[in-house]
Structures are given as C-alpha cells and as structure tokens.
Amino acid sequence: MKRLSIAILLFSLLLSCSQKQAQKAHKSELVKHLESIFYNDDFAVIPDKSFNVADFGAIADGKTLATEAIQQTIDAAAEAGGGKVIFPAGTYLSGALFVKSNVELHIGEGVIIQAIQNNDYYPRKWTRIAGIEMEWPAALINVYDEKNVRITGKGVIDGNGKYWWDKFWGDPKYSGGMWGEYKDKGIRWSVDYDCERVRPVVIWKSEDVLLKDFTVKRAGFWTISLTYSTRVHVDGLVVRNNIGGHGPSSDGIDTDSSKDVLVENCDIDCNDDNLCIKAGKDADGLRVNRPAENIVYRNCITRAGHGLITLGSETSGGMRNIEVYGLKAMGTNIGIRFKSAKVRGGIIENIHFHDIKMENVANPFHFELNWYPEYSYCTIPDDIPEEEIKDRWRVLSQRVVPEEKGIPEFRNIKLSDIKVTKAKRAFYANAYPERPIHHINWENVSVEAEESGQLSYASNWTMNDVVLKTATGQPITLIDCNNIQQPELIKTNSQPIQEETNRTLEEQFQTINRNGDVVIIPVNPTETKALTNGDSTLYSKEFSLYILRQEDATLHFYEPLGDGFYYSEVEVITSQNGNLIQVKGQKDHDYTLFVNRATKPKSIYGADNWNYQENTRQAIIQVKGKNFSIQIDD
Question: Residue 389 belongs to what H/E stretch?
C-alpha cells in the first residue's frame, strides 16, 4: 500500500511537471520573446536609493498643491543617477508630473496622487490624441522621452475626472457642455480634441518602462496611454472610472503605435474600450505610419465598458503580431471588437485570440470596419469664420489621397478556445467589397446567443469545432460573402431565456414607474434594458416604445451614431392627450410601439402595421424609420 501511495505521488508529480512543460512548450514565440525581456532581473533596474517627497516639502492634505515638491524629488533622484521616490500616506493634490530616466515613482498603499481640476497646471506638450498628433495638456503622470522608469505601488492615481466630464457634456450627461455647443455648430467630431480632458498616465516615446500594481480611478480621458514606446510592461493595474459620474471615452489601457508590450493581470472598469490597441488615424496616422506590433494582453478581467479587447478604430499605421488570451469579460457589452473606417487605412494581421471567457456580453464578436461613416471625413461648416478655424480642425478634415489608401484590411486572424454564454448576437462583421475581412480561422469556439448574427463583405472564414446555440437554430446571415464556413448549429429551448428577459424587464419597469407617473419607456431588446430620460444605450436595429398613459410627455435618450464614440439624441413626444406620438432620431430602427388604450382605436395613421390586443388593452404599432409621427383616432 505504501509503495502504491509512493507510486501515485510520483506519477502525480510527473504529470504535474509534464503539464507545466507542455504549457511552457505551447507558449508562442511572441510570448517567450516578451517574457525574456520583462521577466529578466535586468529589466528596468533602479538604483537602491530612496527620496522622500516630504523632505522636499510635499504636504499630503489633499488641499495644498504638491506638484513642485514632488517634481523636485523626482529631479533630485534623476540627478543622483536614479532612485525610488516615496510618499508618506495621504492625498497629494498635483498638476503634471514628469518621471525621469532611472527613477521609480513608488505610490505606496495609502497614498493618493490626485489631479488638480485646472488645465493651467498641465503644460502643453506635443502628443497624440485619438490618433492625431497635436499640442495638448500634459497628463497627471508623464514619462516623456525617457528610459528605464518604474511606476509602482498599491496606491491610487486619481484623475479627478468629473470636472472634465461635465465640461464635455454637462451634468447630467448630454445636458449641455461643449458636447451640446459643438453639436449645435455642426462640429461635434472635434469635441474630444477641443475639450482637452487630462489623462492620468501617458508613456510617450520611452523605453523599458514598468507600470505595476497601482489603481487609477476617475480618468478624465483615456486612462493609460502607451504611445510610440518600446518594451513596456503593465502588470496588475486596477482601473475604476465609473465612480461619481459617467466619463466619456475613458478607455482602460491603450497601446498606441508601440512595440514589445506586455499587459497582464489587470482589472478594468471604464466607459469605453477596456483594453485597446491603436495605430493612428486617417491622413495624419497614415503620414506617421507607425504600427502597433509584438503585443500581448493576457489574464485580465474587464467589467463595465465597450470592448473587452478592441483593435482600432485608429488603425492607420497597421497592427501585427498580437496575442490576446486568458481574458474574462464580466459586464462589458462588446467582447472582441474591431473598429475602423474607410479613411483609416492600415493592415491588421497575424492576430491570435484564445482562451477567453465571456458571459452576458451582448456582442461577443463585433467587427465594424465602417465605423462612423457620417463622421470619418470631418467637414468644417461653411458658416464658421476663417479666423475661428483651429489648426487641428484642418488636420482632422484633411482628405486621404488616393481614397483607396484609406480602406483598412483585416486578415490572417485566429480565434480559438473561446466560450461565450448569454449573448444577444453571436457574430457581426461589416467590411468593404474592395477589401473584405478575410482569412479568419475559428477553432474550438462555443457560443450561446439569442441570434446568430450577420456578416457583410467577408471571405475565407474557416470554422473547426465551432458550435453556435440559438433559439432559432438559424445560420449566420451572409451578405456579399465568399467561402464562409458556418458553425455547427444547435437549436435551444428559448422559453427559459424569454422568461428571464420578461422578468428582467418587469423589474426595471417597476423601478422606473414606482410612482405610477411615467408615460414613456423605451426598451432596447439587445441590452434587455428599459430606459429613462437622458439614458444612453447601445445601437439596436429593433426598438420598443411603451406608452403607458394617455398624457403629453417628452423623453430623450441617446444612442451611438456608430458603435460607441459619438452619441445622437432620440426624442419621443406624446401630445394631444397621447393621440399623437412623434419620434425624432438619426438612425433607422424597426420600432414596435405598445400603447395602452382602454378601447380599440378607430384608426391609426403613419403605421406600417397595427393591431389591438383586447387581453392587454394595448395597441401594438409597427413602423420603420428614424423620424415619424403616429396619429391615433378613437
């Protein structure tokens, strides 16, 4: 018995070793290359000397501006040949800080570096914003043209972003701000650039940088920007941007035209792309022509956001040699996401996504290469005086010549060992007839969704051991596609899903109409979300409007013009004691209106179809469009 136990133990140890060796053997050459850089004891080594900000006069009361004292500490460490800058616990109010070569900024547990809400304390620097090079306020923490830098510790970098969020679109969101002003002028495409929202951390044209263990919250704009940099390791960061408001475009971690980057073990909750890779935008990005390459994102969790992992929309410089694995989506509404436009250009190739889990992600695979066609070519309105036109507007509105140079190409992409449950739409892809999204290889992928989805302009997709479970069992709809292999289709019982959806909506209705005075409730079936006045939502081809009472009322909600960057207003108006219903928006929908009426109307004008349900006492009205009026006569 003893010999048997020993034999079992030896076998277990041997099996364990074999598994570890197998795992090691299965690592890609890219992963092994990056680990050889970042797991080397010589990476970003800092001299063993400490410099305390308190010795230079920094006060941690959250009120006294500490910028100068902290910067003096950093400079002293750099002048001494390098060292670690440390902080006593407390909150340090600060403007822009610039970390130098051979310096570690150690933000220990109990330490908060908080952004002062005043752009005067962030000197203007040449940078890249959303794919365009320009002068802009520096970030709170900057690494500019440096080498051998560490930012570490269990402390917090607080972007203090609500000041900039409100500046962007008012409080509550969409109530005004520059968003409203620019929208009225017809230049909404420039709001993100002109609002000049301060970023928490920017790494610019630097080498050998480690970002480790700290938390960033309330980013004014993109949270972590890694631009034109080489050999950057991001490990164990926590991002929490949905605190105390709604931060527009508050991406989590963006790698922008950088090389040899490893992002791992991060936990992201934001209000745009959780994890993202970018490479410049339009004519300016094509001018720079710098790719994002040799990048691994792995073992991260994403919560609220609009993209578990996003490639784009800034694709002009191209992307290649990228591996993404070990991710888990827990709340983001889009999973693996490609974005581009017909003016972006760039070749995106040699990408591998694998070992990923997604639950309750509405759109697990969303490839929109015609992202925001309405805004891709920014047009300066004729009624804006010449002297008011900003230089950056001229850059933004520069045309791509020849036009075909602006068509992006996504090719040679592999997706394997991915499990998706409780999705809305399984697959979506939309490219161009000139350049379809092509040679996409799917292996060992399981998707449970309400609908199969649609592909437009795709070619040469293989699906091996790919299972798609939907209530209808219908295949993916193909439009102008070539050589697309369908997944194995399994029809599931839709009743439990529908019952859960009905329960969810019933609970939302009870919350919204707790006082019994609500007239209009829009419902987005893609999100299973009932909306209140001022809410934003994902785009959905289908939409429902519930008119609960015959009263005059007005409600506004907001939907993306593309799929997440700019939003447009949808206005729903009931008047004439509820007999006239008007909808005003910018996107076409298949609307179904559920109008509570005690008796069947004599006639309804403006509807494509309608009927009256005696058991629910509802007029059910169907109409397609973006602007329409429904007149009900009793």
Answer: none
